[in-house]
Design a protein that fits this description.
Chain lengths: 108, 116
């Protein structure tokens, strides 16, 4: 079974709005990672948050981690059409297990 | 650095033929991962190597699939014989040594395999 599960499966917003994606996982983690995949491309690493961190920022990205709830969220602020992609969370020791992803569509 | 290099980018073959996918990881990375992505099953880890040694091949579908890493700069994933259900995009990724912890992975562009 998947280690990480994203929610929602699909999200459609207007440019300029914020997008929030959630991830739940099952077992203890050392860190949790978020990746983006544009259509037809390989995954690109966005951000890594360690188990002892609660929040991390990178540009317009904000990631939170709640280890007590085994959940994480990815917030993209002031979204752009170029943010249209699938977003995956991943956890694991050694190997990463990816969720099914959230498909984000940002309309101009 | 050129990033992770995969070849070919596209492969169309007939059922029963042998298919070999190739990957060159980023120099200095000691972990290499092979994934398969389909609409139905999402992104699946097939096998991963640490320091050229296979660590976990539990995701390899069946004996028709095999993977090798003869040196730190090259890996192959072979399917023999291929079947239509093997049609998917196959990704290779590399990272710093991933044993007790996972590091960010760098993905190649993928090989889109179509088996007719």
């Amino acid at each position: 079974s998947q280690q990480g599960e994203e929610d929602p499966q699909a999200l459609s917003i207007q440019e300029g709005e914020n997008a929030t994606m959630n991830c739940s996982y099952k077992t203890s983690i050392n860190n949790l990672q978020w990746y983006r995949q544009n259509s037809g491309r390989g995954l690109v690493h966005l951000i890594l948050i360690r188990s002892n961190e609660r929040e991390k920022h990178s540009g317009r990205l904000r990631v939170t981690l709640d280890t007590s709830k085994k959940s994480s969220s990815l917030l993209i602020t002031a979204s752009r059409a170029a943010d249209t992609a699938s977003y995956f969370c991943a956890t694991g020791v050694g190997k990463l297990i990816f969720g099914q992803g959230t498909e984000l569509s940002v309309k101009p | 650095d050129a990033g992770v290099i995969q070849s070919p980018r596209h492969e169309v073959t007939e059922m029963g033929q042998e298919v070999t996918l190739r990957c060159k990881p980023i120099s200095g990375h000691n972990s290499l991962f092979w994934y398969r992505q389909t609409m139905m099953r999402g992104l699946e880890l097939l096998i991963y190597f640490n320091n050229n040694v296979p660590i976990d091949d539990s995701g390899m579908p069946e004996d028709r699939f095999s993977a090798k890493m003869p040196n730190a700069s090259f890996s192959t994933l072979k399917i023999q014989p291929s079947e239509p259900r093997d049609s998917a995009v196959y990704f290779c990724a590399s990272s710093l040594l991933a044993d007790t912890i996972s590091y960010e992975q760098y993905f190649g562009p993928g090989t889109r395999l179509t088996v007719t």
